[in-house]
Write a structure and sequence with these properties.
The protein is an all-alpha fold and about 300 residues long. It has one domain: UbiA prenyltransferase (Tetracycline Repressor, domain 2). Helix content is about 75%, strand content about 0%.
């Protein structure tokens, strides 16, 4: 795609500007919305479940909360991608999947990347400032997790779980913004989201395992070794079990339980895809998690 865009820009008066804009698009991964979805679905799960807990209130989230959290998800995911690529700018050139990233190819300088990261964080802070003070304080924890995650891959053998905490922190934020507190159901949903991130990011890490081993980068795919597919299966069962408990505590009806059966079927399909640990199969399994998030959300909304 990038090559096609560069060829299409060739000869145009604004070609250098357009190529640079495309490089920034690649840096923020806005051309790959899968990451936005994996962040957004648990956030929407939390907003809908929290809205159901409001005494005598509506069964759907307030429009203001939806707009702030959706926009915040897009902005913070972009910021996370920028700081991740900044941290990995000397590693990515040696990894097949990431060798073409703008910082790896020096299309964008590290200083420009940091400037963009700062702008995105300021936008995210402005968005969350539209909400109450307690939600703002919770957002600082989420920002700290996002900034520090890329550096954990140097020393922490299970960075996928740290990523899960960063990805899942919007869940307690959604409960605080809606209810003013995080009930036990909210913390349980946070743990579910953390485990789910462990599932799909381990599948993602399996794609790069050979390169990571050479470079000394840590991941659950490496730590799990030949038990990787089994431990992914264990986490998948824990995700479904946790969601079942959330559904019971929130008194969600049969559409939600039906969605869990559908999610279980998708998890089984993912197990089939990763059975031989081939790069393409592992990446397809990773992408398939987007449908897990969508189906669970449909179950919550219609329950």
């Amino acid at each position: 795609m990038a090559a096609w865009v560069n060829e299409g820009f060739h000869g145009l008066p604004a070609a250098p500007l357009l190529r640079r804009a495309w490089a920034y698009m690649l840096l923020t991964r806005l051309n790959r919305p899968i990451g936005i979805g994996l962040l957004l679905w648990p956030t929407l799960w939390a907003l809908w479940i929290a809205a159901r807990a409001l005494p005598g209130g509506p069964q759907i989230p307030a429009l203001k909360l939806l707009l702030v959290f959706i926009a915040g998800t897009v902005v913070m995911r972009s910021a996370g991608c920028v700081i991740n690529d900044f941290a990995d700018r000397d590693i990515d050139p040696h990894v097949k999947r990431t060798s073409g990233r703008p910082l790896a190819t020096r299309q964008i300088s590290p200083y420009d990347a940091l400037a963009l990261f700062g702008v995105l964080v300021l936008i995210a802070l402005w968005l969350v400032s539209r909400l109450d003070a307690r939600t703002v304080w919770f957002s600082f924890i989420g920002a700290a997790l996002t900034v520090s995650y890329p550096f954990t891959k140097r020393f922490f053998p299970l960075p996928q779980f740290y990523l899960g905490a960063a990805f899942g922190w919007a869940v307690p934020m959604a409960f605080v913004a809606t209810l003013g507190e995080v009930p036990r159901t909210g913390w349980l949903l946070f743990i579910v989201t953390l485990l789910w991130a462990g599932v799909y990011d381990t599948q993602y890490a399996m794609v790069d395992r050979d390169d990571d081993l050479k470079l000394g980068v840590q991941s659950t795919a490496i730590a799990f070794g030949d038990m990787d597919t089994m431990l992914i299966g264990v986490m998948q069962v824990m995700v479904l079990g946790g969601l079942l408990l959330v559904g019971r505590a929130s008194e969600l009806g049969w559409p939600f339980h039906a969605s869990l059966f559908a999610a279980a079927a998708l998890f089984l399909w993912q197990q089939w895809l990763i059975r031989n640990r081939e790069r393409d199969g592992c990446f397809k399994a990773f992408l398939n998690n987007n449908w897990v998030g969508v189906i669970v959300l449909i179950g919550i909304v219609t329950a």
